[in-house]
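Title: Comparing notes on inverse folding

I've been comparing how different people in this forum approach sequence design from structure. To keep things fair, I'm posting one structure and asking everyone to reply with a full sequence. Here's the target:
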């Protein structure tokens, strides 16, 4: 390499056809579907492959994701882009809501509020994002979450409001 040239880095990402997971989602409760993703029975979301994060644990009203921050997550000022924390929180919070939904029901994020409390870099180490449901009603659900390192140090926290879509005739009270 000559003076003034920088080393070019590359990253190749592959993912499964997302229609496969969508078809499976329609036949399972939210909790069953997310467990099938973790077990590798159903493909996960392409965004998780692109950014290098994954769900690692789910239970009723709770979802946990992990990521190893890396250089490819960096913004131009040399730290991990805040979008990674926001995406992890959106995923963990939404999936926490999803764990409570029956077969045929779905959700979408209406609002996401994220607070970053410290910088993330490639040497931060593995981060865990835990989302927990606050409330699930007939049409609206809320959840809260935390993004922490292995020692429990907080890097970001947030809340979401989700719109819940239920199969017709299933009722649902607020």
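Reply #1:
Here's my take.
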């Amino acid at each position: 390499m000559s003076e003034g040239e920088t080393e070019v880095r590359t990253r190749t990402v592959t993912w499964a056809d997302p229609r496969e997971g969508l078809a499976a989602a329609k036949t399972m409760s939210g909790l069953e579907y997310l467990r099938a993703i973790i077990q590798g029975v159903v493909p996960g979301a392409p965004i998780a492959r692109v950014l290098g994060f994954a769900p690692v644990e789910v239970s009723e009203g709770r979802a946990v994701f992990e990521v190893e921050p890396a250089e490819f997550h960096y913004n131009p000022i040399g730290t991990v882009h805040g979008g990674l924390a926001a995406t992890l929180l959106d995923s963990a919070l939404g999936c926490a809501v999803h764990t409570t939904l029956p077969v045929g029901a779905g959700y979408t994020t209406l609002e996401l509020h994220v607070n970053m409390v410290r910088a993330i870099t490639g040497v931060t180490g593995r981060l865990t994002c835990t989302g927990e449901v606050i409330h699930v009603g007939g049409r609206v659900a809320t959840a809260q979450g935390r993004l922490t390192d292995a020692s429990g140090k907080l890097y970001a926290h947030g809340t979401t409001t989700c719109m819940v879509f239920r199969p017709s005739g299933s009722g649902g009270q607020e």
